[in-house]
Amino acid sequence: QVQLVESGGGLVQAGGSLRLSCAASGRTFVNFHMAWFRQAPGKEREFVATISRSGDGTYYADAVKGRANISRDNAKDTIYLRMNSLEPEDTAVYYCASQDFWTVRFPYTTTSDYTYWGQGTQVTVSS
Question: I need a surface site. Which of 15, 31, 48, 79 has the fewest CB within 10 A?
Answer without folding.
Answer: 15
